[in-house]
Design brief:
The complex is a heterotrimer of chains A (384), B (136) and C (375). With 384 residues, chain A is of the alpha/beta class. Chain A has helices at 22-37, 54-58, 63-71, 87-101, 120-127, 143-158, 162-176, 190-195, 223-229, 258-271, 288-297, 306-311, 328-332, 336-352, and strands at 4-11, 46-50, 78-81, 106-114, 198-201, 203-204, 213-222, 234-243, 280-282, 364-371, 376-383. Chain A has a nine-stranded mixed β-sheet, sandwiched between helices. Chain A has a two-stranded antiparallel ribbon with strand order 5-6. In chain A, helix 7 (162-176) packs across helix 11 (288-297). The two termini of chain A are 19 Å apart. With 136 residues, chain B is mainly β. Chain B is built from two helices and nine strands; from the N terminus they run ααβββββββββ. Chain B is globular. In chain C, strand 4 (101-107), helix 4 (118-126) and strand 5 form a beta-alpha-beta unit. Chain C is built from 13 helices and 14 strands. Helix content of chain C is 33%, strand content 23%. The radius of gyration of chain C is 20 Å and the shape is globular. The chains are: A alpha/beta (384), B mainly beta (136), C alpha/beta (375). Chains in contact: A-B, B-C. The interface between B and C is medium-sized, with 26 and 28 residues. Strand 5 (198-201) of chain A pairs antiparallel with strand 4 of chain B, so a sheet runs across the interface.
Chain lengths: 384, 136, 375
């Protein structure tokens, strides 16, 4: 396997982008990444794109062809990857394997979702297709509901508080203030989270990531190309991908996503690193509880200790392990297919030192991107 | 939900019919491959329908079908309780908990199977019935 | 002889009080309560219909699993005919008894489908297999007893070892219609068999005429009715004639019965009919449920019967007369046997359903009956 680096990044703003179509978001992100990499369309050997459900959100499938066509590529191979909200992270991994294998020297990998064309209840329905349709969603459990059941269990078992959950949202909003691409660039308080409308007890509206539109893209290159094209390559030091049961109720421990545990194990092993080596992480905080579970599954804190870790401020920029300096899915926005790519972009900016007021000074970054309630997880480790 | 898709689920939805493997492993709903020993050729097994709530939530924002108005009309009044229930025989499932005030449900509550409407495929379509649970 | 082998009943958990409905329409609740002699009514949850109610009743009827206990009344016949009945199984589903049910007849005026039987849903949910016949019954509030008569005929003719029959309704009433105070939900089913009856059906007969006092046209959501016309020429004429005819055939007088159940669209009608027939309040007591649960239509008279069976003692005699608009009455002369004692110990009693209740306000009630709906 060859070493692979990220040599270009590009993303659209995340948010309610009423005037933007699915494909325009994808094309813009890809074009920015190509420009950032200092390459041309002709240099690109293959396209990978992650979207969760362009079919249900936008009535459009066959995005692989559409990405290539509308981006102006001449007949290059193009692959659409789907793993629910981990579609972006998995597309990155598949593109990484492609370049590492030697099949292509340069890959553009993007993620995109256009969600706001649907109202909140239909969006909730589409997102619920990431659960087991026959055994979970059709019986009435929504996605917020599944994470809410994890939250209630965590509170029951470890005495985690609703306030500690709220602090995840407060922290990520504070981080997003300095992210020009973020959907919510405003501070919120624990009281505001606690007082927001309940969506699936104990989770409230401000425990949840928003419904967002957005696109994000990366340019990957093999070592030789990367060194010749880029002064600031960011190396993919580890890439892990694993699965867990699609239904939450089938897990022996409903407070652990084995997908995250095993993906992280593989990524750490490949990188020759351990959790204490990580300088910052972008974790899949689709709901506040998800960030807590990820901290535990990735080995950053002991089981049950994530709530106090957040409460102590250790996950803030400037803390012992900054988590979601971008604002995370919670505040940066969560166009589901794009989120895994956007996590990698934040890591690249952080490792390049290009994150402005969000700079953590980290030299090694980790991303964790989750599909569904943990049925898929993709973990990447990046270093300068 | 398409009619054949509903119809083939009837044994599981009406009577909690899952599967049992020669190794003794139980699964609900039925599986093609044993989740423990990976054997095939599992046999049907009916669960008794008694269990315990391991976790739950109160759903206040429901879902509607993206393909238009009321394609699928869930038979649930808002808000409603969804829980993960550990059946006495071992496997867990996710189900609505009815006949309880949402604020009264607790982890550890004993629940029993009831037969209720799950959804209607619009005013003209079939009615899907199946399992829900209520406090004992 | 043939009779009732087992029975099961069900009333939903939710209730709405007369006061709550009356306050919406500016009516004096005390006058409404006095006029209808009803306090509150049972309301189905949004996910309940005649089929789900019938299924719960049927599962209750089948949850009875009489062990071959020598201490029980008659050791030679205290267990069900099926040799596969076993007390070792704690499973209520499926019941071995279910495998010998060859006919299922459910009566309702609120069958969930206009075309597609309720009986198949019940059959599948109780695991009777495929060797059974079914068809749905409709005759306003007496569809349940009509189904029982058909089941009895199937058993007596030998076409069925056991037959399951009964009634279940989620009765609909237009907002503001006086029926809104009474139209309720509930049901009861009975397993009919030749031997081993807990209650022998000595006689049954009907009195029927073409009297349009209450109806619902196809595709209409709510029923229409003839107001006061539902009284004398309809309810009273049929209930009284049928009951008198039964006592004539059976050679009985009113005082021969320990328990009397008359159809109860409200609290007033059955009380007046009983007085005219010569029955006392004591005879009517066990079977009179309408003040607390409302008129459960096809379930009404037979829920009264179920409550009698839950509580009756061996040797007691029971008279049941239903009434269905349109119009007709079915009357039954029943004798309780010794075998009821072990079954009563296992049956889920109707009072357990009547006693557990959650009150709804009017908006919550509207959501339950789907008069208003979340988008």
């Amino acid at each position: 396997m060859r070493k692979v680096a990220i040599i270009g990044v590009g993303m659209t703003p995340f948010g309610q982008l009423w005037d933007r179509s699915l494909i325009s978001l994808a094309v813009e992100a890809g074009a920015k990444a190509i420009h950032d990499a200092g390459i041309t369309h002709k240099d690109v050997g293959v396209l990978y794109g992650g979207t969760m459900s362009s079919g249900l959100f936008s009535g459009q499938e066959h995005l692989a062809s559409m990405f290539a066509d509308h981006s102006g590529f001449d007949h290059i191979p193009s692959v659409r990857v789907e793993a629910a909200c981990a579609s972006g992270g998995l597309a990155l991994r598949q593109a990484y394997i492609d370049v590492a294998s030697g099949a292509h020297d340069i890959a553009v990998v993007g993620g995109v979702e256009k969600m706001t064309d649907l109202g909140i209840y239909p969006v909730t329905k589409v997102l619920s297709t990431a659960a087991d349709a026959e055994r979970e969603s059709s019986l009435g459990v929504t996605f917020p509901g599944i994470y809410a059941m994890m939250a209630r269990l965590h509170m029951h078992k470890y005495h985690t508080t609703e306030e500690q959950l709220a602090m995840v949202a407060v922290k990520n909003h504070a981080h997003a203030i300095h992210n020009p691409h973020a959907q919510f660039r405003r501070a919120i308080t624990v009281d505001q989270v606690m007082g927001s409308v309940k969506i699936a007890d104990p989770l409230k509206l401000l425990d949840a990531s928003p419904v967002s539109d957005g696109g994000a893209a990366l340019v990957l290159a093999d070592e030789k190309t990367a060194r010749s094209q880029s002064d600031t390559p960011v190396w993919i030091a580890g890439s892990g991908h694993a699965t867990d049961t699609i239904a939450l109720h089938d897990r022996e421990d409903m407070l652990s996503m084995r997908s995250t545990v095993y993906a992280a194990r593989d990524a750490f092993r490949q990188a020759g690193l351990s959790p204490k080596d990580i300088g910052m992480a972008e974790l899949h905080d689709c709901f506040t509880i998800a960030e807590l579970l990820a901290l535990e599954d990735l080995g950053f804190v002991d089981r049950g200790a994530s709530g106090s870790f957040i409460e102590q401020g250790q996950a803030h920029i400037g803390g012992s392990l900054p988590i979601n300096p971008s604002g995370g899915l919670k505040a940066k926005g969560h166009p589901v297919g794009a989120s895994g790519i956007a996590q990698a972009i934040e890591s690249v900016l952080q490792l390049r030192g290009d994150a402005g007021l969000r700079n953590t000074g980290a030299e090694i970054a980790l991303t964790q991107n989750v599909g569904g309630s943990g049925g898929t997880a993709v973990v990447h480790i990046f270093r300068r | 939900m398409a009619v054949p898709k509903f119809w083939r689920q009837i044994p599981a939805l009406y009577n909690l019919e899952g599967s049992v493997c020669g190794c003794g492993a139980l699964a609900f709903p039925p599986r093609e491959v044993c989740p423990k020993c990976h054997a095939v050729g599992l046999k049907p097994h009916r669960f008794r329908g008694k269990g315990t709530v391991e976790t739950f939530t109160i759903i206040r924002t429901p879902t509607t079908d993206p393909e238009g108005e009321n394609i699928e009309v869930p038979a649930r009044s808002i808000p409603y309780v969804m829980g993960i229930i550990r059946l006495e025989e071992g496997p867990r499932l996710t189900a609505q908990i009815v006949d309880a005030r949402p604020e009264d449900v607790r982890i550890g509550d004993r629940v029993e199977l009831v037969f209720r409407k799950l959804l209607e495929k619009g005013p003209k379509g079939v009615i899907q019935y199946g399992y829900k649970f209520r406090p004992v | 002889m043939a009779g009732i082998i087992s029975w099961g009943s069900y009333v939903p958990r939710y209730r709405i009080k007369v006061e709550e409905i009356a306050s919406v329409w500016g009516m004096d609740p005390e006058k409404v309560k006095a006029g209808l002699r009803i306090q509150e009514k049972a309301v189905p949850d949004i996910d309940e219909d005649a089929a789900t109610i019938a299924v719960e009743c049927a599962r209750n009827a089948l949850a009875v699993d009489v062990p071959s206990d020598p201490a029980s009344a008659d050791s030679s016949s205290s267990s069900f005919p099926s040799s596969s009945v076993s007390s070792s199984s704690s499973s209520s589903l499926p019941s071995p008894l279910a495998e010998h049910i060859h006919a299922i007849y459910i009566g309702s005026e609120s069958h969930p489908y206009a075309v597609k039987p309720t009986g198949t849903i019940v059959g599948e949910a109780i695991g009777v297999g495929n060797d059974y016949t079914t068809a749905d019954f409709e005759f306003a509030c007496k569809a349940g007893t009509a189904a029982m008569q058909a089941a009895l005929a199937m058993v007596r003719s030998g076409m069925a070892t056991f037959a399951l029959a009964g009634g279940a309704d989620t009765a609909q009433a237009a907002p503001g219609d006086p029926l809104e105070y009474t139209a309720a939900a509930g049901g009861a089913v009975f397993i009919i068999g030749k031997d081993h009856a807990v209650a022998e059906i000595n006689h049954t007969l009907s009195f029927t005429s073409d009297t349009p006092d209450f109806w619902r046209r196809a595709h209409e959501r709510y029923p229409s009715h003839g107001g006061p016309f539902t009284g004398e020429p309809a309810y009273f004429r049929h209930v009284i004639a049928s009951t008198k005819k039964l006592m004539h055939v059976a050679g009985t007088t009113p005082s021969d019965y320990d328990h009397v159940v008359l159809h109860q669209p409200n609290g007033k009608f059955p009380a007046r009919a009983a007085a005219r027939l010569g029955f006392t309040r004591e005879q009517m007591a066990l079977g009179m449920l309408v003040p607390l649960i409302g008129n459960t239509y096809s379930g009404a008279a037979i829920l009264g019967l179920a409550n009698v069976l839950d509580n009756a003692r061996p040797g007691q005699r029971v008279l049941l007369t239903s009434y269905g608009s349109g119009a007709g009455s079915d009357s039954f002369d029943i004798t309780i046997t010794d075998r009821i004692v072990p079954v009563q110990k296992q049956i889920r009693p109707l009072q357990s359903y009547i006693g557990r209740k959650t009150y709804l306000d009017y908006p919550a009630y509207l959501q339950k009956v789907r008069a208003i709906q979340h988008t």
